[in-house]
Design a protein that fits this description.
Length: 138
């Protein structure tokens, strides 16, 4: 696959995830606090299932394209940094957000909910910076 196509795939996935993560950060996660105890467990479980459908394909494609671009052509520093930001977003997702959602799936707990909103800034910053770097590279 040509490097130019891989760069475009990277950019498309990154822009998609950037828009999505800003929506999650500003709207979706803060609204968790307003769901109510009775509906929270069902809401959290549905959130996890439905969000995975929206996020997983783009994240996987982004990861694959991010690795593949380095295999097909010499990469400028900006692409290496962008790939590092992909790893940061994935690490934050798997090591911070997924475990917090696991705790929240057991019931409403203010501490994990506050931590979820605060720690999500890691992913918001990573995808935002990644999109800027990829746009600059193109």
């Amino acid at each position: 696959m040509p490097a130019e196509l891989l760069l475009k795939i990277n950019l498309a996935c990154s822009l998609y995830m950037t828009g999505l993560i800003w929506f999650v950060q500003i709207v979706h996660y803060p609204l968790f606090a307003h769901v109510g105890r009775e509906a929270f467990l069902d809401y959290e479980q549905r959130h996890q299932r439905l969000t995975t459908r929206v996020v997983a394909p783009a994240m996987l494609l982004e990861l694959i394209a991010s690795i593949a671009i380095h295999l097909v052509a010499p990469s400028p520093l900006a692409l290496w940094v962008a790939s590092g930001l992909t790893i940061i977003a994935w690490a934050s997702t798997m090591l911070i957000q997924v475990p917090l959602h696991g705790k929240l799936a057991k019931g409403v707990h203010p501490a994990p909910l506050k931590t979820l909103v605060a720690s999500n800034w890691i992913r918001t910053a990573a995808w935002s910076a990644r999109s800027i770097l990829l746009l600059w590279t193109i």
